[in-house]
């Protein structure tokens, strides 16, 4: 059962400027170590950082809380299966709020072009839709 839907779009240049202006402080505040490592390994790293930014925003919209109630950027982590399919791992306040709302997890789609990155998140009640035959990669 669908419990919520969220979408977001962001200009890649905006994320790139924040990374250039604030460097490690920005990256450590917004992204987990695993997300930073994943994005930095990619040729167009700013596109991947922007996609993860949009995904985090989309998850919060699907949750229905926005940035309230002690939520931190790193409470939402985007990890990828070897196939490239993104998956959401939730931590901290987002995990607690999701459990209270009866959300078992989130389905996620991310896309980007040269100028924009977008993401759609679906909050689901039944966790069976979240299982995947291959575990996420650790890079």
What does this structure look like?
The protein has 139 residues and is α+β, with helices and mostly antiparallel strands. The protein has a single domain (2-130), classed as Alpha-Beta Complex (Ribosomal Protein L22, Chain A). The chain contains four helices and five strands; from the N terminus they run βαααββαββ. The chain has helices at 12-30, 33-40, 45-63, 92-100; strands at 2-11, 76-80, 86-90, 105-112, 116-124. The strands form two sheets. The protein has a three-stranded antiparallel beta sheet. A two-stranded antiparallel sheet has the order 2-3. A hairpin with a 5-residue loop joins strand 2 and strand 3. Helix 1 (12-30) crosses helix 3 and helix 2 packs antiparallel against helix 3 (45-63). The radius of gyration is 14 Å and the shape is globular.
End-to-end separation: 31 Å
User: What is the percent of helical residues?
Assistant: 25-40%
> Taking Cα atoms only, what radius of gyration do you get, to the nearest Å?
14 Å
Strand content: 25-35%
Helix count equals 4
The H-and-E topology, N to C, reads as EHHHEEHEE
Q: Looking across the biggest beta sheet, what order are the strands in?
A: 1-5-4
Q: Are there runs of 5+ residues with pLDDT below 50, and where?
A: none
Name the overall outline. Answer: globular
Describe the main β-sheet briefly.
Answer: 3 strands, antiparallel
Q: How many structural domains can be distinguished in the coordinates?
A: 1
Total strands: the figure is 5
Mean pLDDT, all residues: 92
Name of the CATH homologous superfamily: 4'-phosphopantetheinyl transferase domain
Tell me, what is the CATH class?
A: Alpha Beta
What structural class should be given to the helix and strand makeup?
alpha+beta
